[in-house]
Amino acid sequence: MRVTIAGVGNAGSTVGSDLVRKGHQVTLLKTSKSLHNEHYEKIKTTKQIHVNDLGDRYTADFVSITSNMEEAVSGADCIIIYIQTNYHEKLIREMVQYMHDGQIVIIEPGYMSTCYFLKHQCPDITIIEAESSPIDCRITAPGEVSVLFKNVLNPFGVYPSGNRDIAARCLDALGYPYEFTKNVVEAALHNPNLIVHTVGAIFSIPRIEYTNGDYWMYKEVFTPHVWNIVESLDKEKMDVLQALGCTKLPYVEACKKRNSTDQNEDALEVFFDYAKNSSPSGPNVPDSRYITEDVPQGLVLLESLGKVLNIATPTCSGLIACADAALQKDFRSVGRTVESLGYENIMHILNEDRKEA
Length: 357
What we know:
The chain is of the alpha/beta class. It has two domains: about 1-190, NAD(P)-binding Rossmann-like Domain (Rossmann fold); about 190-355, N-(1-d-carboxylethyl)-l-norvaline Dehydrogenase, domain 2. Helix content is about 50%, strand content about 15%. It has helices spanning about 10-20, 35-45, 70-75, 90-95, 115-120, 165-175, 185-190, 195-200, 205-210, 215-220, 225-245, 250-260, 265-275, 290, 295-310, 315-325, 330-335, 340, 345-355; strands at about 1-5, 25-30, 50-55, 55-60, 65, 80, 105, 125-130, 135-140, 145-150, 155-160, 180. It has an eight-stranded mixed beta sheet with strand order 5-2-1-6-7-8-11-12. A four-stranded mixed beta sheet has the order 4-3-10-9. Strand 1 (about 1-5), helix 1 (about 10-20) and strand 2 form a beta-alpha-beta unit. The longest helix has 20 residues, at about 225-245. The radius of gyration is 19 Å and the shape is globular. The model has no long low-confidence stretch (mean pLDDT about 95).
């Protein structure tokens, strides 16, 4: 399969390398100059990435590593978006100019970015939104990446829902174990970063500053009282999911589905095992993407949905206020909302799924 990955950061580089190893023709597309420039300059020259896959080392040879949008998008069977969700609408607005009917787009993850494809009048394509990336990973040096953890199951939403057979053939070819959620809205709100990145990073700010960035959020921050905040936010998310006709699944149960081969394990123990043994270090600065991405794109969206549905989200709103105050920003002004996604686009997705049912 001809696969283009938009984004040459941690996940794009590592998943791209994994797909090369599986025999796919992979192009990496650099979408901006904001991050990972030294890494990009290195791999653009060599067309190679060296991978440490949990101790198994190999080198991936890419078909192309480029910043040419038209070249990368027009010739792809499948396009995987691996950039921060803050920049999805800008990328999608440009990308749809070069797309054609029959292509498949996978958004890793999406926060309902399917709505942006509808908003900007995409061709007749299949869109797959993931809850999270199938591989946790980091760039360790320019041209080198390391795998930290692999999901045992990857939930995906599909639009239009009648294209699940097309999505299944694509996902089978990519080789990641998967199941389908009810729709892309459900997948978006089960994005784990909505819950643990936001709570974890906001309550990590004192430790990050005290240690000058020598910090490991997953191992340190989720004490019993902070976990109470996680569960309060998670309840608000589940209330919104239920009101939208989606599956009301707690964060830890969703985590267990993605992370554990033994579904009889205690879900909380699965999370803390991941936190202790497989999670990435950091964040190392207070204004990391854990806040600057997941507050405006995740929490602001959840709050906006709650307002439309007349569901109270006091914990969510309080976290947004704390993030605003700490970083001296107005995340609501730049955040993802029902209005920015398009109320009619969200309803179209939900109603289209109900018709299929």
